[in-house]
Amino acid sequence: MHRHAIGMGGLALLSTFLIGGCAISPIPLSSDEIALGTQDKLARVTRHQEPLSGPIDLPQAMARALKYNLDHKVEVYETALRQTDVTLAGANGLPSLVASSGYASRDKVSASSSYNLLTGTQNFGYSTSQDNHDKTSDLTFSWSVLDFGLSYVRAHQAADKVMIAEESRRKVVHRLMEDVRTAYWRAWSAQKLSSRLMTLERRTRSALARSSQIAGDRTTSPITALTYRRELIEIQRTLQEMQRELSIAKFQLAALMNVVPGTPFTLTAPQAMPASSAIAASPGELVTIALNNRPELRDAEYKKRINAREADAALLEMLPGIQLFAGPNSDSNSYLLNHNWLGWGAKASFNLLRVFQYPVKQELIDGQDKALDQRALALTMAVMTQVYVARARIVHFSREVEIAAAYSKTQQELLRTIQAEHDSNRVSEQTLLREELNASVGLVRLDIARISLETAKANLLSSAGLDPRADGLSPTSSVAEIANVLRRGGAVTASNSAPLTLAKLKE
């Protein structure tokens, strides 16, 4: 009784210790840990990148974005991880080989007796066939036919998820190329026009100051003075809007290329990229290209295929499970005749409730298929609309460029005429200054119209689902190699090449 009380007390003490050990309180990160993490991320965010050297052109900017942009890298690694899931899903159907060993001990002999039902007496005295200390070990090879079938289906579903991740990566690439092209044109315009805009801003402020002096001196009529002042303020407002629109473009481009903000670099004048046939295609042809290549539509088809295979998995789950097993065994019990032996067998199991669950699962699968189909139809309409809108924007901005070019040309001719009249003292200094400002604003507006046109072209390529050409490129390709391919190839239809794996990413 005393020994029993001690045993219960020890058990209670052990339970208290285990419960106390499981009571964990949340611990926030310390300031040192946060600081170290910050330093580590700052050190690694641009590590192993080719340094900037010389002026950057548009293909180089695109190449740097493809190679170093962190959003794109996340999608690349996500695709590689999904590829690993395929390997793991296939391995789940392989046979298992389990090794186990054990040790058992007791303080008293495991003895027992038997009772004869015919005579109503005890057969023998107490006996044992088990040592107080026993060691066992076995190596069991087993294989479930049902698990093999299910793993085959799950592996195909995992493979489709790889392709979904690949389409997600393509979508990021489309957005990335569109953003780089837009940011590059804006940053280049800002680089080219910055000094001109600053000069215009200074001249406008100076003219405004003089206009106030003229109004105060009453050397001209108040209406003329105020009208002139209003025109100058309007020009100043236009200049400020242009500066605001272009001033942040270089920071945006640096972020897309994964360059530390504030890093100095210069841009070259954008050269005409190889024209894609999609730019000149008819609306019907563009819609066909887009429906064949847009990542969102491919994503929807892969999800429908995954759902269809879920129906196969539901059928397999209703089948009886057959498990085959075999392996050597060992037991140190001295009472045994054979301490080592080879065992084998088979076991069948059948979950009857799965039969009743199947109709509900099938109804769910059918509902999901209908929902996915409706989503695909909605995406089809959205893609068609985006293609038509993108094409209309190109037409619209092409006209804007023509009008801006005509305005700028006319303004330049007018400025030359005003200059000649001013030289002959037939027009005032204020009139000449106003037309000079208008001529400069006209040039800036022409550049902004060209930026809008290039943005619309990039949007059309993205809407059509066209990928930048990447023939023969790998994760180890240099920026120069990628840029050269982009210069030659432009945009092409989406390929069906195999996605990258984690092993390839580490090469």
Query: Would you tell me the structural class of the helices and strands?
Result: alpha+beta
Biggest sheet details: 4 strands, antiparallel
Number of strands: 8
- If helices are DSSP runs of H or I spanning 4 or more residues, what is the number of helices? 14
Share of residues in helices:
55-70%
Order of helices and strands: HHHHEEEEHHHHHHEEHHEHEH
The whole-number mean of residue pLDDT values reads 82
Poorly predicted sequence stretches spanning 5 or more consecutive residues: 500-507
Strand % is 5-15%
Q: How many angstroms does the end-to-end distance come to?
A: 69 Å
Give the strand line-up of the largest sheet. Answer: 1-4-5-6
Shape: elongated
Radius of gyration: 39 Å
Write the layout of secondary structure elements.
Layout: H1 2-22, H2 31-44, H3 58-68, H4 70-91, E1 96-105, E2 111-112, E3 127-128, E4 133-144, H5 145-217, H6 222-247, H7 249-256, H8 277-280, H9 283-293, H10 295-318, E5 321-331, E6 340-349, H11 353-423, H12 429-463, E7 467-468, H13 479-489, E8 491-492, H14 502-505
Antiparallel strand pairs: 1-4, 2-3, 4-5, 5-6, 7-8
Which structural traits does this protein have?
8 strands; disordered C terminus; single chain; alpha+beta; four-stranded antiparallel sheet; 507 residues
